[in-house]
Amino acid sequence: MRASSWLLLGIAALGIAGCGKKSNPIGGQPREFLADRIVSLSPNTSEICSLISHPRMLVGRTDSCNYPESLSNLPSVMKGTTPDYEKIKELKPNLIVFDPALFSDEEQAKIKELAPHVLAFDVHSLQDYEKFLWEHSKMTGSETSASKELDKIWQKVTEAKGVLPKDALSVAVVIGGGQSEYMVAGQTSFQGSLMKEINLNLKGPDSDKFDTVNVEQLLQWNPDIILTTEESAKAIVADPRLKSMNAVKDLYVFGTDPGILLRAGVRIDDLLENFIPMADRIWTARKGATN
């Protein structure tokens, strides 16, 4: 199991006594650092910190951090993509977690001046996410929690690979519609990489983010499944321009919570728990139709 090495490291991490000091040894060696005051500068990192670390470690969040609900009790240190540097400084964090995609190089330099330790959430795949959780858990003494979380995710990935032959079905991760343009997850985006990880053939631009695409391109890709948000699912199904697309024609448009789909790394097991059975049903029906 992937968790085996994590659990060995996590045996000494059962408490958080002595946070911020060289304590809680790993394999007989004292930790160089253990965070006890964390500021998170993106909704996904706030959720991950709440899930993996001790709840009391997180002392600052952004205005957009709304899950879990307990985050509302914390002071906000950022509106939109503008950090309140003075407020962060007042909180005296010893670890700041941030998404570098949200900030310029100059802003990142300012952030790094506000705490002795920073951790960048530069994640575009499950492997990147695993590495991030590893680094985060070493800084917070939460190896056991991280191991359990990763075990749940990889179990779902293994389950998907057991029922879906590689590239047998195609998928596009799409948002927007209605009065706005459609945006599609790129080949090296986290959402796109996750779909490829579970053996689906991803249709999307050569990009590490969501890019705007026109309807003609969507029709050309013609995915078997569309993964989207609940609101966008309604717009996609109702768009007469897309009625000939396989996913729309067969009603294989899967809408989910935007907080899960758009925030990389959060509630991955929940997404796969609901998405994999639908993909399995589509593949089973496809096999039946060709036999």
Write structural notes for this entry.
- The protein has 291 residues and is an alpha/beta fold.
- It has two domains: 3-150, Nitrogenase molybdenum iron protein domain (Rossmann fold, 3-Layer(aba) Sandwich); 164-290, Rossmann fold, CATH 3.40.50.
- Helices cover 43% and strands 15% of the residues.
- Strands 7, 8, 9, 10, 11 and 12 form a six-stranded mixed sheet that branches.
- Strand 5 (95-98), helix 4 (105-112) and strand 6 (118-120) form a beta-alpha-beta unit.
- Helix 1 (3-10) runs antiparallel to helix 6, helix 5 runs antiparallel to helix 6 and helix 6 packs parallel to helix 12.
CATH topology of the largest domain: Rossmann fold
Q: Outline, from the CA principal axes?
A: globular
Straight-line distance between termini = 37 Å
Our Rg estimate from Cα atoms comes to 21 Å
Q: In this structure, how is the largest beta sheet organized?
A: 6 strands, mixed
Question: Structural class of the secondary elements?
Answer: alpha/beta
- Share of residues in helices: 40-55%
Q: Report mean pLDDT, rounded to a whole number.
A: 90
Give the domain tally.
2
How do the helices and strands follow one another from N- to C-terminus?
HEHEEEHEHEHHEEHEEHEHHEHH
Q: What is the H level of CATH, i.e. the homologous superfamily of the largest domain?
A: Nitrogenase molybdenum iron protein domain
| Number of helical elements | 12
Strand content: 5-15%
CATH class of the largest domain, please?
A: Alpha Beta
What's the total count of β strands?
A: 12
